[in-house]
């Protein structure tokens, strides 16, 4: 496994420790991914809007949970053990429990979720705070801040 040395970044930057953790997590094989189950899509819906869709056929709404904590979106599916004995000639439908995690960028919020035709879709939106939006500075005659410092 390749490793990335981020020490040069730390010499001149502050607050990038979250990025280092994200890179480290991306480089490791995610043991919780259970070999790609359930399959999912990540879509760009529009400006600053996204959707994650997971194929969760066979799961009821009350067997699924969605949580966001510290910038991590966690989707879990818990299937109860079936008491009845069935005899299968072929069992290709996986009804096993799962957990999927997605790292969310700063200011990305979960806006809702819906279940339709065995697909769980989670809507996400990046909300840019007013303080981070570009603002136009008008040029005028008033320099109150600069005049007061003389």
Automatic annotation (TrEMBL):
All copies of the SHSP domain together span 31-142
Per the UniProt record, the source organism is Pseudidiomarina atlantica
Please report a single Pfam family linked to this protein: HSP20
Record protein name field:
Heat-shock protein
Keywords, A to Z, come to:
Stress response
> InterPro entries recorded for this chain?
A-crystallin/Hsp20_dom, ACD_IbpA/B, HSP20-like_chaperone
Q: Which family does it belong to?
A: Belongs to the small heat shock protein (HSP20) family.
Task: Answer whether the UniProt record assigns the keyword Transmembrane to this protein.
Answer: no
Provide the taxonomic classification. Answer: Bacteria, Pseudomonadati, Pseudomonadota, Gammaproteobacteria, Alteromonadales
Name the SUPFAM superfamilies for this protein: HSP20-like chaperones
């Amino acid at each position: 496994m390749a490793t990335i040395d981020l020490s040069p970044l730390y010499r001149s930057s502050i607050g990038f420790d979250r990025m280092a953790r994200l890179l480290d997590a991306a480089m490791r094989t995610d043991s919780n991914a259970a070999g790609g189950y359930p399959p999912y899509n990540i879509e760009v819906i529009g400006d600053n809007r996204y959707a994650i869709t997971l194929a969760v056929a066979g799961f009821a709404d009350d067997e699924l949970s969605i949580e966001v904590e510290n910038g991590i979106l966690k989707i879990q599916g818990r299937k109860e053990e079936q008491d009845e004995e069935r005899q299968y000639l072929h069992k290709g439908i996986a009804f096993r429990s799962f957990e999927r995690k997605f790292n969310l960028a700063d200011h990305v919020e979960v806006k809702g979720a819906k279940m339709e035709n065995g697909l769980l879709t989670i809507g996400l939106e990046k909300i840019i705070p007013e303080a981070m939006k570009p603002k136009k500075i008008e040029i005028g005659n008033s320099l109150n801040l600069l005049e007061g410092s003389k």
